[in-house]
Amino acid sequence: MKTVAGLVMLLMLAMGLPAQGAEQKPYIFAVLPQRPPVTMHTTWRPFLDQLEQETGVKFKLKLYETMNQFEAEFKQGVPDFAFSTPYQLMLVHRSQNYRPLVRGSHLLAGMLITRADSAIKVLPDLDNKQIAYVGSRNVCSLSLRQILSQQNIKLNMKEVFVGSSSNVYKMVLLGKTDAGTVLNVDFDAQPEDVKAKLRVLMKAPMIAPHPISAHPRTSRQVQQAVADAVLRMAGKPETNPLLKPVQLGKPVVAEYDRDYKALEKMDYEAMTKGI
């Protein structure tokens, strides 16, 4: 038995995975701030606990109060693994060579919505109007800025950051803002009576969703173990429910060139300057 155990340990070491019972330093797993840290911890810790069981690797969950804090550490290469927006991955792929491993299968598109009875019909009508955003660097808000830049439309918009998609809908429906930005996956999930009261003024091109990515200092064996584990979790009834809350529903293998390279046409730093 000792011989078999020794062979197993040698095999795990050869694969770059920690041997069972061996002292190991946890990998830092950073997640962009989307809700208060307490809520984020409640959502993400069960997923990481299961990921530890699947891989034999330990993870330290790193959460942030602000997007600036997350991006600063991401740019410095602090996290070993990270869950970020597609745009943030594009930024650090160039500077730190983070590699996307897995992502959800539902493609994302930013949408600009107004009330159905709004006088706003085209993008230039937004000049001097109030726009509700979830946050300054969310996919939906960046999609609008990118389209305005591509179409050379310069507007003086009054931006209101409201913290959640549900608040965007409330602000628009109650007439507290003239328009708002949301994601297609969220809009599609709204009740029909809510969608009937809204008009889609603009829908951006589809992009691949938020990935889990890995810093190149983590071994390819560990990266592969994480990717395989997420895909394996999707196929088991007892672990599949852990994926949707962390935006990894129906996960697929992520590839940078196929999924995110096209985003390099965007000047992310210019789009987010001062916000």
TrEMBL record:
Signal sequence annotation: 1-21
Pfam families, A to Z: Phosphonate-bd
Coiled coil: none
Keywords, in A-Z order: Signal
PANTHER family, per the entry: PHOSPHONATES-BINDING PERIPLASMIC PROTEIN
The protein, known as: Phosphonate transport system substrate-binding protein
